[in-house]
Amino acid sequence: MKRFNKDIKIGLTKNEVKYQIDNGNVNKDTTIPTKSVSTIILSNIFTLFNMLNLSLGIIVFLTGSYKNLLFLGTVITNTIISIVQELRAKKEVDTLSLMCEPKVTVVRDSKESEIGINNIVLDDIIKYKLGNQIVVDSIILDGLVEVNESFITGESDPITKKKGDTILSGSFVISGNCYAKVEHIKEDNYSSKISKEAKYIKKVNSVLLDSLNTIIKILSWVIIPLGVLLFINQYFTLKSSLDMAIINTVAALIAMIPEGLVLLTSTVLAVSVIRLSKQKVLVKQLYCIETLARVDTICFDKTGTLTKGEMEVKEVITINKDYDIKEIMNNICGNLEDDNATMIALKKYFKSNNYKKVDEIIPFSSDKKYSGIKLNNKTYILGAPEFVTKEKVNLEKYDDYRVLMLVEKADNDKIIGLILLEDKLRDEASKTIQYFTKEGVNIKIISGDNPRTIRRIVKRLGLDFDKYVDASKLTDEELRKCVLDTTIFGRVTPFQKRIIIKELKRLGHTVSMVGDGVNDVLALKESDCSIALACGSSAAYNVSDLVLLNSDFTSIPSIVEEGRKTINNIEKSASLFIVKTGYAIMLTLIFMIIPYNYPFIPVQLTLTNVLTIGIPSFILALEPNKKKVTGNFLTNVFKKAIPTSFVIVICILIITFLQFSFIEKSTLSLITVALVGFIHIYRVCYPPKKYHLFMISILLTLFIIGITLFKKLFSVTTINILMLLTIVLLIGVAIIILKAIDIYKTKIR
Fold this sequence. Notes:
The chain is of the alpha/beta class. It contains 26 helices and 21 strands.
């Protein structure tokens, strides 16, 4: 394979790039933002519940009772809807991901240009700077950088890389600039070789996901043994025919399976992703929408988040008149290649014309918090006052500004002067923080700047946050002790930011981090829900769960409200599924003991599943809901569902012991389950809106049509006067019991 050794000022030529592409030496991003189409289809088809339903369908098919296979129609419909919605969400996410695909600066034909990471070819010359993520293994040809390799090696300390050193894909630049030649592409990259298990992958903090997994786990252990015991009772004890025993058992098992619940959840989250994409919010992790809605503490970086990330020099103050501060700053700005907001403002002010070539450059580091030059055997350092000199200087009158101090480093530091800069505020930041404050969410402002400066900025936003600390003066243990009581953290290193997030989580808080810089990356990765601004560094973008593509803070409340709607609505919808699972398990346990046939057959449950669970759960899951999320998800679901399940069981037992034929008992049981199901829908919607009542009316009408016009299909008989009176009495009993339960719950609160 032909390799090219190119000068950093020339780079590859057009023909050399074409040669590499023709020979397949072009990069490919091995990290996929979403699941593949085939994965989405297969993961929705081959679920535990689908496979269980399919197995039950095969068993019913062998009995020859084909109408009882109708329940598979619901399973297929649910699966198709889930696949379609997830594919739609994938399309939206992939489109947004392509729009904001990380770009790199390459040198080709003596010109610097930006290209996508999938257009990089072997031997390309890439220019890396502060905040860039290393996208391909490269060898430094010129320059000096500090890189963080924590995401690929687990080592969090910065590593200095110079000419001749290899910088690994997956690391990111925390200071300095360099030109590097591409050494590996595609699967040959170091980060691609590491197995997924070996990478630091943040555990998804999702109550929804954990709750669904709990339900699935419990049912997977319970459902088969109960089915076997019920079949033994029906076939061997009651001497039912083999076909009838199978059909009764299958009916019980179908009722236990909340087959649409998992699919409904993924569908609703997919719809949320689509909605948020319209607001230019890229959702990189599906369940983070829910997590953000549960957040009780949100941490904001200052620079680039509360402020625009743009600065301007307000004043230059000369302290030592033996020095020409403008000449020194001209040399610093001319030689330093950093392009952060501070340096851009300095270069704009000092112009950087006719500067002298220096002996050595001291690049900026987020840990050291200074940069500088060595010229004519003198070292000039520019940075935060407390980091560039041990001499104490009273700076209180400059609290409104970000203060940089210029010092000549010698046996006795010589303070040359001060440069006062001011951040430009984001107009929407105040509104967003006030929203969270009103919602009872704790606010933390975390920044590398002077805490007094941060406090002034916060006050400029119209916010009254007074409790602040200077983290540079605290040990890690002291920092941990003050995380709860402090609002503003100044002079915070990237590692201290992570300590703050970790400690908040250890204390039981659900934490979100909003940032845009390379110094926020460790905290973003550690948080339960990380939010990055697209205008920030590629490193911050790559590790975050959510990306605000238009860098608009006003999108965050929308995401919270979308999450609330998702959780609260799925909670209501889930209760419909658990009602069925609850009464099915209780009835199965009872009919394993009593000498009566199970009252349902599969085709009857298909009718109630569609009309009292399937359709209403989907409608309820997508309706507006801004209610604050409270309580435990599973507990809330069971509190709503179990009383209804209990009432249904009581009604079915009453029917079982009455003197009716089996088909009359089966008809009465079906009608009772449906009517109590409609009552449950009314209860979870209470107080109901007009469209709720309209929905229930339509579903009730469809049920009546089903049991009157399709009696043979659903194996029901004509209702006589005695049966009608029984239904009225049973529904009356159900309403009284449910009302009594509500009164009792109100009293014990």
